[in-house]
Specification:
Helix content is 29%, strand content 38%. The chain has 363 residues and is of the alpha+beta class. It has three domains: 25-146, Immunoglobulins (Immunoglobulin-like), CATH 2.60.40; 154-174 and 216-352, Rossmann fold; 179-213, no CATH class. It starts with a helix and ends in an 11-residue tail after the last strand.
Length: 363
């Protein structure tokens, strides 16, 4: 009898030692959002999967997941949630059999533009007799980027409506140096580069190319976030407003069927690649790249306003319009804009965040 009791105690001691040392071995945790880019307040789903890859079951696992402090859940009353200034901590517990997994999906929202991180969890595994527990931290690197809200401004819509009307008219005034409609005699008033030497060599005298009208309007959206001095709260709000304006401008161009490219001096973070220049395009995929960049954009700049405008001056398409979005018109800005206008005769609109009125978002 004593020998039998000794054997039971020995087995219990071994089990206790093993669960303390290896109870959470081969237990994995992952959290996956169903979308990486969302709108403010838009519902998306996060799915947590916990898997026990061992043959032996785990009688008790407690998990404390670290999530963004701004995150809200559609079913908060049913969850064990603790919030502080840095994180939302979601606590749950479960039993997990050998080589089994448990998954849970939650509908959540994030309120404002920016990048939000799900950094992992702390996992507690109960020991064999429930007197102690094994603790592990499992890191996670899931991220969700939230786009800026659209800018709610009747003034902005009026500006864009007038601008689109102007470039639509200009397409019938300006000739397109790409679309050749025919040839005519050289009068001496045409630029020397417009002479067609191939046609002139046929013995009809000097002939110049006659161009067709611009086939379709196109626009360059220029987003400037340069400011001088320290980043104050007021200036940060102006930059945020620029991001909202940029979104509304691009969506308006999409709705109007106008092709556009995008240049900015804003810094961006995350695995987006080079975002300061987006080639001309139109469509959902093109817009989504703009929105993701706006979601990840910061308050720093990679170049000055003057260099940004100089980059725009390299593209000299006839009839191309420019929309310049800036927190404010600082000293010296107008000279750069005047050079842009004088060089290409561009249709230019400047939209400043500090002067544009914006209606309050409806609740």
């Amino acid at each position: 009898m004593l020998i039998f009791l000794f054997i039971l105690l020995a087995i219990g001691g071994i089990a206790e030692w093993w669960t303390l040392k290896h109870g959470l071995d081969n237990v994995t945790y992952s959290l996956t959002p169903d979308r990486q880019v969302v709108d403010p307040g838009e519902i998306f789903t996060i799915t947590t999967v916990i898997e026990n890859r061992k043959r032996l079951p785990i009688s008790f696992i407690k998990i404390k997941e670290l999530m963004p402090c701004e995150l809200t859940f559609d079913c908060e009353d049913e969850l064990n949630i603790h919030r502080d200034l840095e994180n939302t901590q979601l606590t749950s517990s479960l039993y997990l059999g050998g080589r089994k997994s448990s998954s849970r999906s939650l509908s959540v929202r994030l309120p404002e533009r920016g990048r939000y991180f799900f950094t992992g969890c702390t996992m507690y595994g109960g020991d064999f007799i429930g007197a102690s527990q094994d603790v592990r931290y499992i890191s996670q690197n899931a991220e969700v980027a939230v786009c800026p809200r659209p800018c709610r401004s009747m003034e902005l819509q009026e500006v864009l409506g007038g601008f689109l009307g102007d470039i639509s008219v200009r397409r019938f005034i300006l000739e397109d140096p790409v679309l050749t409609a025919g040839f005519r005699e050289y009068t001496g008033r045409e630029p020397f580069r417009s002479i067609s030497w191939t046609q002139s060599a046929r013995g009809q005298g000097l002939m110049v190319k006659q161009y067709d009208y611009t086939a379709e309007p196109s626009v360059t959206v220029v987003l400037n976030v340069e400011y001088r001095g320290d980043l104050t709260r007021e200036m940060a709000e102006k930059v945020e407003k620029c991001y909202r304006i940029a979104r509304t401008v691009c969506e308006t161009l999409e709705d109007s069927g106008v092709r556009y490219d995008f240049v900015t001096n804003a810094t961006t973070a995350g695995a987006l690649g080079r975002w300061d220049t987006l080639e001309e395009g139109i469509g959902a995929k093109h817009l989504s790249r703009v929105l993701e960049g706006l979601a990840r954009a910061g308050y720093g700049r990679i170049m000055s306003f003057d260099r940004l405008i100089a980059r725009c001056m390299r593209r000299s398409d006839a009839g191309r319009g420019r929309i310049i979005i800036t927190p404010a018109m600082l000293e010296g800005y107008q000279r750069s804009v005047d050079r842009l206008t004088a060089l290409h005769g561009s249709c230019v609109r400047i939209i400043t965040a500090e002067e544009l009125s914006e209606e309050e978002a409806s609740v």
